[in-house]
Design brief:
The structure holds 2 protein chains of 2 kinds.
Chain A lengths: L1 H30 L6 H18 L4 H29 L8 H24 L13 E4 L2 E4 H23 L1 H11 L1 H6 L4 H26 L7 H15 L4 H21 L7 H13 L9
Antiparallel strand pairs in A: 1-2
Helix pairs in contact in A: 1-5, 1-6, 1-8, 1-9, 1-10, 2-3, 2-4, 2-8, 2-9, 3-4, 3-8, 5-6, 5-8, 6-8, 9-10, 9-11
Chain B lengths: L7 H5 L3 H15 L6 E7 L4 H19 L8 E7 L4 H13 L5 E4 L3 H14 L3 E3 L6 H8 L1 H4 L2 E3 L4 H16 L7 E7 L4 H14 L3 E8 L7 H10 L3 E6 L4 H10 L5 E5 L7 H4 L8 E4 L11 H12 L5 H20 L4 H9 L3 E2 L4 E2 L22 E6 L2 E6 L20
Parallel strand pairs in B: 1-2, 1-3, 3-4, 4-5, 6-7, 6-8, 8-9, 9-10
Antiparallel strand pairs in B: 10-13, 11-12, 13-14
The chains are: A mainly alpha, B alpha/beta.
């Protein structure tokens, strides 16, 4: 019984982590940006969904769309206000641009976090589950919402895979992650590629944020923890590898769930962090990383 | 920034214009000072209970000033946000006292912060009244070292009294209607719940409720599923809560998971008028202790305060709104009684507080009690209420319910019939 509970709970959490991590790693793989405002972006999406649901008495699906849109807006804001100016700046030495972008997104994430707390307090925001109620799975009473989350996450990941592997735009994205300069020489507009990546990222982070709000609730205080989670999953899986991120998301998700159930919820983040340290020592490029 | 009027002799020696002005100022300084009385309010603005402190204070100050102020002097509240950090709170306290020249400090709902400020009140000889923290350590320190710590007052019920109120409510209201023989105590691991839980473990067995388990979770827990799973396996009749730092997440997850055990206890976020919206209705059936609430009508002042707070800020106040409103009034009364804003004399005047506020009849325990300067608990003083969220409203169940009031739990979490 407990085993089934852990299996189900872990699956939902891992799917959620997976969606967030895939966006994060895609961003790094294609445009070289480690977006440390990732958690804040998810929180903005969650809070936007909550605001729309509350203020306009909207149904959860409409709120979910609004939240995802807010995620996209935040992603573009991050790109235009923080990342692009640094990347184009003449006063930053090219070798240090990545660090500056990292720091810039970190600070930007903190700004967003504080702004959300200022306007809406740091109390966790929740959105009504997309489908309410519970069902019995293997003798375990499970909120239907958890299954909905898993289904949505995997559908989106599946769509993304189709996009990247079967569509022309997707192949351009893949090429940009392998060799952006060659792509430029071939005549493709790199700036359009980056825009597309930020848009995709915004959608992924937005959906992840909204789903988090329906599942556990999201608060501005969690923004840095969400970023840290995504970061450790992505490093574990291999920076830039989407399948690596998915695998790592499930490893981390299940490690956390096992710890929360068998030891104590207070220590849930510890084993994943220990694993991260081990991976960096033993296999720094991560499980499935290329670089 | 405060202007100290210059002394007569040096001022009149200055330039003609400034000398005239200075002499005029100095003359008025010798008579009744018309400067505003400043009170510092330290709160956690980004938390629901914290924002209630600054807002309650503002409502009180405006009402006092509209009625003529304190002996003709305006009351000015200066707000400080401590960001839920004891270090920031101490800095704010130091600034309030030395730079902004406040005569007293009111605030914080976090016990760890109240305990951090207590020695600073002692050092600066400035009265400090906490209106939201609950640990009884605050008043125990006053008892144990009176001469040093007498500047601190605890104008909210200390945790053991909250537990007693919950047990009294269970016994007087719920046990006659339902069979409540076992419980699991579920509380966050924080300073205020240590004495709360200790008293739960004493008062629950006294009313025939066996404590099956005592779970203390880290305040930054965000996934409560494993805890509810464990509790459900133990099959208690009720979950007795002690939560303040968290509230929305455990409540929403309890409802989503349809945990078949009702929650009765202390959930400070549930005392706020915004809690139904915050949880999207998952609060239905939650029973919590509150010092006062919308519709509780504890005194003739309770509802008018709720209405003026709601009019100004959009929602009914959390528990800290009531206590801070009363604290500003008791401070104003003490200043009038003492005839001065000197710290030592204010303390003596505060000890004589006998004030009917929004929460009840406010008096403080004296040196003969182990909880010196804590708020007196009892039916002639303050007992608080038990309220339940029903259909978007806070319904007062105990000690006095309006006629036709019924207890109402969601279908998945009913109390057992006897």
């Amino acid at each position: 019984m407990l085993g089934t509970q852990i299996l189900i709970d872990g699956f939902a959490i891992s799917a959620l982590y997976g969606l967030g991590a895939v966006g994060f790693t895609l961003m790094f793989g294609v445009s070289g940006v480690l977006n440390l405002a990732h958690g804040a972006t998810m929180v903005v999406a969650a809070v936007a969904a909550w605001v729309v649901a509350g203020q306009y008495a909207a149904n959860p699906w409409l709120a979910a769309v609004a939240g995802t849109a807010a995620g996209v807006v935040t992603a573009f804001a991050t790109y235009y206000l923080v990342v692009r100016p640094i990347q184009r700046s003449r006063s930053v030495p090219p070798a240090e641009k990545e660090i500056f972008v990292l720091t810039g997104t970190l600070l930007w994430g903190i700004m967003i976090q504080e702004a959300v707390a200022y306007f809406y307090t740091d109390n966790p925001k929740t959105v009504r589950p997309l489908i309410a109620g519970v069902m019995q799975i293997g003798g375990v009473r499970t909120p239907i919402n958890e299954l909905v989350i898993a289904v949505i996450c995997w559908s989106v990941i599946g769509l993304l895979w189709l996009l990247v592997n079967r569509s022309k735009a997707g192949k351009v994205l893949l090429a940009a992650s392998i060799n952006p300069r060659a792509l430029g020489i071939l005549g493709f507009e790199l700036s359009r590629v980056y825009l597309q990546v930020w848009a995709i990222y915004g959608v992924l982070a937005g959906i992840a944020g909204v789903l988090l709000a329906t599942f556990l609730g999201a608060s501005s205080a969690q923004a840095s923890q969400l970023t840290a989670s995504a970061f450790s999953i992505v490093v574990l899986g291999g920076l830039g590898s989407v399948s690596g991120s998915l695998l790592a998301a499930y490893i981390v998700g299940y490690l956390e769930t096992l710890t929360a159930y068998l030891v104590s919820p207070a220590y849930r983040t510890v084993p994943a962090l220990i694993l991260l340290v081990l991976v960096i020592y033993v296999r720094p490029r991560g499980l499935l990383g290329r670089r | 920034m405060p202007d100290r009027p210059p002394s007569t002799s040096s001022a009149c020696r200055g330039g003609l214009g400034s000398a005239v002005l200075a002499c005029v100022l100095a003359a008025t300084a010798h008579g009744q000072s018309k400067e505003p009385i400043k009170i510092g309010i330290i709160s956690e603005e980004s938390a629901i209970a914290g924002a209630g402190i600054s807002r309650g204070a503002q409502v009180a100050a405006d009402a006092i000033n509209a009625a003529g102020g304190v002996d003709g002097r305006k009351l000015e509240v200066i707000l400080y946000d401590d960001h839920s950090s004891a270090a920031d709170a101490v800095r704010a306290f130091q600034r309030a006292v030395s730079q902004d020249k406040v005569v007293a400090v009111i605030g914080t709902y976090i016990s760890e912060i109240a305990l951090a400020l207590e020695p600073w009140a002692a050092r600066s000889h400035v009265p400090f009244v906490t209106t939201g923290a609950a640990t009884n350590e605050i008043s125990k320190h006053v008892h144990d070292d009176y001469d040093k710590n007498k500047f601190t007052f605890h104008e909210y019920l200390a945790s053991p009294f909250i537990s007693d109120a919950v047990c009294d409510g269970l016994k007087q209201l719920f046990q006659p209607q339902f069979s409540i023989k076992s419980a699991v105590v579920l509380s966050e691991d924080a300073a205020w719940t240590a004495p709360l839980d200790a008293e739960y473990l004493i008062c629950l067995p006294k009313i025939g409720v066996k404590v099956l388990d005592h779970i203390r979770f880290s305040p930054d827990t965000s996934d409560f599923t494993p805890l509810y799973n464990k509790i459900e396996g133990e099959k208690p009749d009720v979950i007795v809560t002690g939560i303040s730092h968290v509230g929305v997440q455990p409540t929403v997850q309890w409802a989503q998971q349809q945990v078949p055990v009702p929650m009765i206890g202390m959930s400070s976020q549930a005392t706020s008028g915004t809690f139904w919206k915050d949880t999207n209705g998952a609060a239905a059936g939650v029973v919590t202790f509150a010092i006062a609430a919308d519709g509780s009508a504890l005194t003739p002042k309770t509802q008018p305060f709720v209405d003026s707070y709601a009019k100004r800020f959009g929602d009914a106040p959390p528990y800290t709104g009531f206590t801070t409103f009363d604290a500003v009034y008791t401070m104003a009364e003490a200043i009038k009684r003492a005839g001065t804003t000197d710290g030592e004399k204010l303390v003596a005047a505060l000890e004589k507080t006998d004030f009917v506020g929004t929460v009840g009849h406010v008096q403080f325990y004296g040196r003969d009690s182990q909880y010196t300067h804590a708020m007196k608990y009892g039916s002639e003083y303050v007992t608080g209420i038990l309220l339940q969220w029903q259909n978007g409203k806070q319904v007062t169940l105990w000690p006095k319910a309006a006629p036709q009031t019924k207890v109402s739990f969601p279908a998945f979490a009913r109390l057992k019939q006897p």
